[in-house]
Specification:
CATH topology: Arylsulfatase, C-terminal domain
CATH architecture: 2-Layer Sandwich
Number of helices: 1
Structural class: alpha+beta
Shape: elongated
CATH class: Alpha Beta
Amino acid sequence: MSNTETGVKLDVRAYPIAEPKGSVVAFASVTIDDMFAVNNIRVVNSDKGPFVAMPQVKDKEGQYRDICFPVTSELCKQMNEAILGAYAAEKEKAAPAKESTTEKLREGAKEAKAQPAKTGEKAAPKKSDPEL
């Protein structure tokens, strides 16, 4: 996903976590103007909704500090919108596929139960059959 709202070209990739175990729901990567890439950007879920957390490192005092970050508020806003938009798009892509697969399995199971067993067909051999 590219975004050039403020004249800065952003190429954003979001990678939702299939089954998040904590508050991190996705990771993202951003390439800025085809010259600088930032990986391990986190999309974190909170009570107020998802937000973007830049890559961090723990300092001597045990405080977390961002390794890299947008310097201007315009770029910060542009990056946040682009990352959250990419995350929403990827999440939306994954949701219908998951639902349709589950629905197909349910429909197949219903059809299998509804079909009467055909007479004259040989049943699958059991492990104890001597023919094996």
